[in-house]
Amino acid sequence: MFVLGPNRYGKAETRVVRVTKHGDAHHIKDLNVSTALSGDMADVHLSGDNAAVLATDTQKNTVFAFAKKHGIGAAEDFALLLARHFVDSQPTIHRARVAIDEYGWDRRGGHSFARNGRETRTCVVHYDGERSWVVSGLKDLVLLNTTDSEFWGFVRDEYTTLNETRDRVLATAVTATWRHAGVSDWDKSYEKAREALLTAFADTYSLSLQQTLYAMGSRVLTDCPEIVEVRLALPNKHHFLVDLSPFGLDNDGEVFFAADRPYGLIEGTVLREGAPGAGPAWE
Amino acid sequence: MFVLGPNRYGKAETRVVRVTKHGDAHHIKDLNVSTALSGDMADVHLSGDNAAVLATDTQKNTVFAFAKKHGIGAAEDFALLLARHFVDSQPTIHRARVAIDEYGWDRRGGHSFARNGRETRTCVVHYDGERSWVVSGLKDLVLLNTTDSEFWGFVRDEYTTLNETRDRVLATAVTATWRHAGVSDWDKSYEKAREALLTAFADTYSLSLQQTLYAMGSRVLTDCPEIVEVRLALPNKHHFLVDLSPFGLDNDGEVFFAADRPYGLIEGTVLREGAPGAGPAWE
Amino acid sequence: MFVLGPNRYGKAETRVVRVTKHGDAHHIKDLNVSTALSGDMADVHLSGDNAAVLATDTQKNTVFAFAKKHGIGAAEDFALLLARHFVDSQPTIHRARVAIDEYGWDRRGGHSFARNGRETRTCVVHYDGERSWVVSGLKDLVLLNTTDSEFWGFVRDEYTTLNETRDRVLATAVTATWRHAGVSDWDKSYEKAREALLTAFADTYSLSLQQTLYAMGSRVLTDCPEIVEVRLALPNKHHFLVDLSPFGLDNDGEVFFAADRPYGLIEGTVLREGAPGAGPAWE
Amino acid sequence: MFVLGPNRYGKAETRVVRVTKHGDAHHIKDLNVSTALSGDMADVHLSGDNAAVLATDTQKNTVFAFAKKHGIGAAEDFALLLARHFVDSQPTIHRARVAIDEYGWDRRGGHSFARNGRETRTCVVHYDGERSWVVSGLKDLVLLNTTDSEFWGFVRDEYTTLNETRDRVLATAVTATWRHAGVSDWDKSYEKAREALLTAFADTYSLSLQQTLYAMGSRVLTDCPEIVEVRLALPNKHHFLVDLSPFGLDNDGEVFFAADRPYGLIEGTVLREGAPGAGPAWE
């Protein structure tokens, strides 16, 4: 017969904005919170008996209520608070996963803000009633180097037509996630890790995007001792040099066509040697 | 020091359209192909030495060339062909993952077609030089039942405000993936699995979306002996009954607000008992 | 000094789903309704005095209440009902624009439905207290011909590199809107106009997408005497023949790369001679 | 019979990136260029005769070639250059419309950049062989005030349920376009107009979004004498105060739900008195 395998359920993308007012100076936190719970869920799947189910509507309510009761500091702390609450307060819930996207705003006055449109800060927290795992990260950080990138010496088979190049534009949209060994000063850690990614991308003389990826991951581990593992997904956003010779023009790295699809996709992991096991951190 | 962990690289989203002409009757296959390779990739990450790298541009070329040389039948077969080619022809490549999305077209004449806009058919194939794993699936299959859905008897804690209901609209956008035991008649298997999902959704008197999920997965396993595991992600696309009482109107399941966010998200797996191990199938 | 120019305000994208139950057979209408009102709005702009403003929240409520009170038949009729209500009931509102997108569902049982994913049906209605204007249409109707399309004889200047072709794939995503002379059987008119577009695209031996556009518009006017003007926006979704010669393969219209950007964009209008003036119909 | 009405054709969304190198300091301009031409196009529509057609592929080539030959300064200048070229060099082309979106990058080093993710700068230029019209603008500038916004005193009819409020969050995503009287220092004008929009949003004590809109438009006209007309589309991105009373919590402007749909949409125009006619500027 059939068996129920891994499962979880929750409320995805609760968009909560928390305003804090210190006199005339207001502050905002703008989050997209997704909660997912697991536990004694055989009955609800097999017979529709909801006795073990904390409704997803309740999970949403809890996000809003906790935003009021506890305020929102670092997204990681808010996620941990929620994860612990669900597991510790509900006997049928044994594991919680809370994922948060955070959008940044620039101050334009005491109570006026403009979305900065930079990359989105992310975190995913797991809690199983005893231990917790925290992964922080960012996505949609779009970077481009106009030079210091080569690509040559690759395999040539019967389907290879690509020319070798000693100078190309290298562009990507970084999705990065990094696993913490324990509890950190999340905001400070984030700023350091972000800066490490940006700096490594800018400073690496690149012979391949894989090399750049490894340099970025290593730099995060070097600069952030609290981090034990970095995962990166780097699309190679191709900028093709346009052939202007039909128009009697040369093109010495000046005019590029920014292509959409297909794109290269380089994915990789850099770990601190002897890093503790990841458990469910990446699930 | 630092260690290179799991990694892969490839060309994502190569959009290939293959036309086959039998006299006046033309046929089209419209695919979005993503290839990803792994193998002896330490050097390229650590030093930028590309001697082991089959360029992503070459992978793209191979997709187009194979579309011509071998034609395109079932997406699974085309994916297997590509995966085996990369691993078997390149000594440095030890594993390949090929993912394909397929878009459907309705015939409007001998050589005229209209995109049917139905769900997207998907597959992911892995090959390691000896074995292959095939997962088929679909996404964006949007379903709605106007009745035969209840939700009650769930946990009530201090943050619970949701009313119990004995009649509600149940709507979802199905993402389903299913793992095959071996080689199948992929097209026939797909049609049976798809029909099983649709029928189970329509026929299940639902006490929770989890119950519906399990019923859908079980139906696929029942109707398709070649399939050993089904994974489903079902967003609960909330249709809220609008309170019309301020206008002196009742609303007996007639007028709904289709909400965007947040949404419930129910994820689960149904396995055939004694199913063989999944290996890298879901990676 | 400064002058307030054209303005309007309203509630955009109210997602209303209307269920009608005839015994065991249920029916659904799934709409996205946007209302916009104009009138005596100088004060609200100049001083924030809202005395003339029917709140956008009220407009949304009216959509839901009317869905209950009047049911929903053709989207055009529902739009007219709303437009007339706002203008006729509010002395400060002089003009209304109601735009509706309608999503189609296929029946899968007495009360079970699957989104058909076809193109979206659209309409825009204007009412000024005396007259009304109705524009119907569709968007995202994706069509492709595998042959019967040429492109040659075009201007060649110093920046022209394109080769002439006597056989190419022609693909587009139709956005079409058509203006009615008066009141029609909207559903019947829609089906005829849609069929005219599809048939003209399939049947036209095309020497340019402009020619196809004109043929499509003309066919609508020919088949639908109730329609006086057709506007079409046809992106030329380029399908480039892949050069397979480096691999020793020919490519006689068999393997294409479906490109994203840039794309051609052909926009044009076909009118019935002596068509009445459009008034605000296209605003 | 039928008549060909207004029409135009061109190449949309040519993504050109122009790199300029001054020693070690590189600069980039990142544009999305759409060209559209009109003229003696009866034949191509009626019979497919392309003798008057400058192919859209040629238009794309011209964008790339001009990026090399002339460099890219302000987007408006590049658009004017292209528009004039097409009309002045082709006897069959009588009018050109060139629209450009520009994406901003922050410098991270001599040749390293990060997309700033701020709003997109836009322009639309028309040229008819004699005169030109320039509209500049921006889109996706997301702003939020945490206070100094009220909404009360609006019409109450039988479908009105909204409570009056003396303090709410006001948020919007600005789409603004402004028409120039003649030639400007486009970059300087843009910075002034952008700053005027931001400042007016932050400084206006708002009794309605319409009032804020008018204040924003007026501020642009006040600060930028070179601009004669401003058009604004301001979605009211509702931030609903969450009712926390079921949990025994008050909510004094602290916790909000950021809703997606429906949203208010306020559109309006502010003109300088005696502004010259707009001609085709807004088409």
Automatic annotation (TrEMBL), chains A, B, C, D:
5-hydroxyisourate binds at residues 56-57, 151, 168, 210, 236. NCBIfam families: urate_oxi. It catalyses: urate + O2 + H2O = 5-hydroxyisourate + H2O2. The active site is at 11 (charge relay system), 56 (charge relay system), 238 (charge relay system). Pathway: Purine metabolism; urate degradation; (S)-allantoin from urate: step 1/3. Gene3D superfamilies: Urate Oxidase (3.10.270.10). Transmembrane segments: none annotated. O2 binds at residues 56, 236. GO terms for biological process: purine nucleobase metabolic process. GO terms for molecular function: urate oxidase activity. Catalyzes the oxidation of uric acid to 5-hydroxyisourate, which is further processed to form (S)-allantoin. Pfam families: Uricase. It comes from the Bacteria. Its EC number is 1.7.3.3. Belongs to the uricase family. This is Uricase. Keywords: Oxidoreductase, Purine metabolism. Coiled coil: none annotated. Urate binds at residues 56-57, 151, 168, 210, 236.
